[in-house]
Amino acid sequence: MDAKARNCLLQHREALEKDIKTSYIMDYMISDGVLTVSEEEKVKNEPTRQQKAAMLIKMILKKDNYCYISFYKALLQEGYKDLAALLHGGIPVLSSSNGKDSLVGVTSYVKTVLCEGGVPQRPVVFVTRKKLVHAIRQKLLKLDGEPGWVTIYGMAGCGKSVLAAEAVRDHTLLEGCFPGGVHWLSVGKQDKSGLLMKLQNLCTRLDQDESFSQRLPLNIEEAKDRLRILMLRKHPRSLLILDDVWDPWVLKAFDNQCQILLTTRDRSVTDSVMGPKYVIPVESGLGKEKGLEILSLFVNMKKADLPEQAHSIIKECKGSPLVVSLIGALLRDFPNRWEYYLRQLQNKQFKRIRKCSSYDYEALDEAMSISVEMLREDIKDYYTDLSILQKDVKVPTKVLCILWDMETEEVEDILQEFVNKSLLFCDRNGKSFRYYLHDLQVDFLTEKNRSQLQDLHRKIITQFQRHHRLHTLSPDQEDCMYWYNFLAYHMASANMHKELCALMFSLDWIKAKTELVGPAHLIHEFVEYRHILDEKEISVCSQDCSVCENFQEFLSLNGHLLGRQPFPNIVQLGLCEPETSEVYQQAKLQAKQEVDNGMLYLEWINKKNIKNLSRLVVRPHTDAVYHACFSGDGQRIASCGADKTLQVFKAETGEKLLEIKAHEDEVLCCAFSTDDRFIATCSVDKKVKIWNSMTGELVHTYDEHSEQVNCCHFTNNSHHLLLATGSSDSFLKLWDLNEKDCRNTMFGHTNSVNHCRFSPDDKLLASCSADGSLKLWDVKSANERKSINVKQFFISSEEPQEDMEVIVKCCSWSSDGARIMVAAKNKIFLVDVHTCGLLAEIHTGHHSTIQYCDFSPSNHLAVVALSQYCVELWETKKVCKNSGIVLKQEIDVLFQENEVMILAVDNMRRLQLINGKTGQIDYLTEAQVSSCCLSPHLQYVALGGEDGAIKILELLNNRIFQSKIGHKSAVRHVQFTTDGKTLISSSDDSVIQVWNWQSEEYVFLQAHQEAVKDFRLLRNSRLLSWSFDGTVKVWNIITGRIEKDFVCHQDTVLSCDISPDATKFSSTSADKTAKIWSFELLSPLHELRGHKGCVRCSVFSGDSTLLATGDDNGEIRIWSVSNGELLHLCAPISVEEGAATHGGWVTDLCFSPDSKMLVSAEGSLKWWNAVTGESAQTFYTNGTNLKKIHVSPDFKTYVTVDNLGILYILQVLE
């Protein structure tokens, strides 16, 4: 060894001896040929870990440069990067060609790439199958950098996974074809929830610096989009290896322009995906010579010297590498038992355990049984304990330390014996080791120990409860994820029903689990274990089976919130549940405890009076729901999904009317005909079917598409019904229900057609595609009329067009057919049909993907966005039409002593006076009201009409006083003076009217050039008004004269506020600035810059020292009034590239009397610590786009209305 290398090793000897575990480092060095088995035994014989490390380093010091390099690489491989860094300076230079590791023929580059990608290492005893490996590499070369699929298929246990790993263990292949790396994912037999977990883990691995998103994808569709972006942007030209794929539907999640190598038992799994496909069959397992080679390596003999029985053993093993390895491991320990093991295999004395399996190697049971029998007596039971492991799950060492109550080193020693005997496999990437069984070994153990399984599951739960309390689980513990994913599974399998209910009905558990992995897996567990959770006798509370419904509904309805960053306060969400709900009762209990420690919580005191909360939640399907639609009369809902069924139920009650096993594969879309007589369905099975919507009878089956059919839509005219369908074959087809065959096929798209819609007059058909375009077709001729490249709307300097993939998801026509709305990625575009020009765009934030968009009949927009759980409604009218009585957002609130009185207008044009504490509603009158207000002592109500009329209603006797003059257009604001004798109103006509309604005197304030935005009363009969003309004016309301005229902004003045000391006012504008003014000066004291969106509101603190401003990007800034300095930026997470992180514009702000707290109205209500700028609490309303927050003088009661028309009266919990 070089002196430099030796000195470096001696210098850092103490640190190395203190930290390293020798076991796996020695395995690596033995495979490199620099350490012998006898030397390994010598190290293992040392009593303590530190002494073992000292002995190993002593040996290395006596060896050569190759040993130093091998030791250095072993440290890197096993996750000791800090220790490897200490030795880096001493690495000796070796002469080797092309960077090849001369010891093992694999370059360090290959080892690094495969280690980082999670590719399994070679098994303990390995023989190459050159022909097959070469064939796989040739197919991978054929991909040539383009998306495609290489499939290795063969029966279970034939070595597919080892072959896949070996194929990429090649420097030239990786450097030339996959410079972006290789990423290995063990898939296995999965349901939707399990696949989502796999995808979440893969996305986390690919985005370790969280540069693309700070939260996990919440559903498979979102995960697919995230994976596509990560592979395209962060890991271009990389290879994704999917090991052990069982089901075709799984591959759809990866069908996103990737290069993929997969192993499977079913050759047809790739039939459902697009792109070039190459197949390598592994039909025969190992040949005789390869089998003998494995045995010779195990027993350390030449092939020619193997006894005669070796040939017979290989014959009995029937080519299974797994069985040969099991027998080889036995013979290594007992080299004189050739005859004995052959006889055991031939006698078939171990009864066949597997009753039905795709596995054809009969010898496996015998080999497994022999291997287990030959284990030392003191470790046999430990192997039996592994019967509870699930397939394709790698278990951290720490879990087994807890199960067996042992130190890590003791556990690793036992597990290494299983690994050495091929009874267990180890994933040694990184510092922590994870262990797993082959699927067939899981089958064997499950059947062999079936009678003990319940007790074995109970054992792991008992041990978990001894070592952990739920709230002590920390995400940085290596076993944490295992418990969150499988604790409920073990409890259910152990028949520990009471414990399972206590777990699943715990807000603490829900919070911890959803914070880590999102709500999807938890919702799946509620479905999976519903039969247990509904059992009345073991329910943890008096509401019996309704408790499960409480929690499941709580998760379903709040799912869109439980996956976002920052994570919502789950106790506050629970307080919004009905008071009879177990979720609410737990939340109330926790909230009261936390309030004592200074936490802020809000009670929604009028929620029991809100009829809108009784939303219909229907769960007609046993798997994911892909589409749902109303019948034309709104009486029925049809839905379809992954369970291959079409369901029809009553919209009012959820009563099931029809359940049809509609297709042979997942049903992707359904549609009612205009006259409601028919329902069309389309499916992954490439078929389109027409059903009688009343009887469920099949009317037609169309089978002309060559790929899955993604969408279907009927014409709007029922006299001549046509159906349009769009498919992944890139074609649209038109069907006449009176004909058997397709009427027209429309060619033009170059990728999957995702969505199609007829124009209101049925003359045009719009289609959206994964090729990034929206096309308009002439229905009569089937010719393409226009093509709009939606991709061009995304072009920016940060995202060059050629590097960007834009999948257009859906489109919707306006009722006049003049505009069309289209959704792609996280944006919605409104396009002029005639000019193809872009009229408007809506941005939903960088962490959302829009799945669906639609115009309502009155052209108000509804969007399904973010995830399968979230519906964002951008306007209210569509919702109001079918939601009973809802309120308009323009309300007035009067706080009197212990009373809260709300004046509001509902969608039936009725004026309501609501007692916030009792819920009593007085209906005052009916009118086309655009604004309203209460007089200070609750004697009068003022109304401003859409027609400009102004009225005053005396509450005591219902007398009405009407202004004789009024306004020329809609009245936007009305307000009484403090004595209640004068009413001030402003309108779109730019005039402010001052009406002394008792003396019938009028003063008109006319000087603004555009509509008045709003006004505020000042002292001494003065009034401050601001306008779209950019000015702020101070008026004398007695004389009508302007006293001060401030030219504040070049753009619209959106808000003003007056300081409590009445010396200053603020102005905010669409020009993205805010300003602080003195009433004595015509130039601003301070111009506040930094907002990136329209500054929509501002408010002074009670002591006049602070000013808070809010903008359209969700940012709130707190400024010093004295010097204009920015003190705090209030935003829940950093705002990237202008994406709103809050869910709406900041429209209103209010400080607490002591200036220490601030509340904001935006997409939700938020409370902030004004001293630190940190978020104190968030209340998520059912709707969004809040306009105003009314706050009581003591800052303990808050009133607002969301854009669904739901009233919220919130009170601080004490």
UniProtKB/TrEMBL annotation:
Keywords recorded for this protein, A-Z: Apoptosis, ATP-binding, Calcium, Cytoplasm, Nucleotide-binding, Repeat, WD repeat
Gene Ontology CC annotations of this record: apoptosome
Primary localisation category: cytoplasm
Domain annotation CARD: ranges: 1-90
Cross-referenced InterPro entries: Apaf-1 (IPR017251), APAF1_C (IPR041452), APAF1_CARD_dom (IPR037963), Apaf_helical (IPR042197), CARD (IPR001315), DEATH-like_dom_sf (IPR011029), NB-ARC (IPR002182), P-loop_NTPase (IPR027417)
A GO molecular-function descriptor: ATP binding
Cross-referenced CDD domains: CARD_APAF1 (cd08323), WD40 (cd00200)
Superkingdom: Eukaryota
Chain positions of WD repeats: 618-659, 660-701, 702-745, 746-787, 964-1005, 1005-1045, 1046-1080, 1088-1129
GO biological process, one term: apoptotic signaling pathway
Binding of ATP, residues: G154, M155, A156, G157, C158, G159, K160, S161, R265
Membrane-traversing stretches: none
A matching Pfam family: WD40
PANTHER family: APOPTOTIC PROTEASE-ACTIVATING FACTOR 1 (PTHR22845:SF5)
Function: Oligomeric Apaf-1 mediates the cytochrome c-dependent autocatalytic activation of pro-caspase-9 (Apaf-3), leading to the activation of caspase-3 and apoptosis. This activation requires ATP.
Quaternary assembly: Monomer. Oligomerizes upon binding of cytochrome c and dATP.
Name of the protein described by the UniProt record: Apoptotic protease-activating factor 1
Biological classification of the source: Eukaryota, Metazoa, Chordata, Craniata, Vertebrata
